[in-house]
Design a protein that fits this description.
Helices cover 34% and strands 15% of the residues. With 80 residues, it is an alpha+beta fold. It has a domain of 34 residues.
Length: 80
C-alpha cells in the first residue's frame, strides 16, 4: 500500500507546471525610434569629430552640439 501511495505522490508531485504566458512584444517603441525624424537645427546632442593631421600626437577632438555644427555648415551625422 505504501508503494502505491508513494508512486501516486511522485506522479502528481512531479507534473510539469503550466507554462507562463508569453510577454507582449516590445517592438512598438523601437519602430517609433526608427521613424522619428530629428531636426538638425534644433538637435542639442553633443557630437564629437576627430581631426587627424599627419604626424604623431596631432589628432584633435572637437565637440559641440549638432545644431552648432549645422550652423557652421557641417552635419557630421548626415548620411553620405
Amino acid at each position: 500500500m505504501t508503494m502505491i501511495a508513494l508512486a501516486a505522490a511522485l506522479a502528481f508531485g512531479t507534473a510539469a507546471p503550466e507554462p507562463a504566458p508569453a510577454p507582449a512584444p516590445v517592438t512598438a517603441p523601437a519602430e517609433q525610434r526608427l521613424t522619428q525624424t530629428i531636426n538638425p537645427e534644433t538637435d542639442m546632442r553633443r557630437v564629437c569629430v576627430i581631426d587627424t593631421v599627419t604626424g604623431p600626437g596631432s589628432a584633435r577632438r572637437y565637440c559641440q552640439s549638432r545644431s552648432l555644427w549645422v550652423a557652421q555648415g557641417t552635419d557630421p551625422l548626415a548620411k553620405r
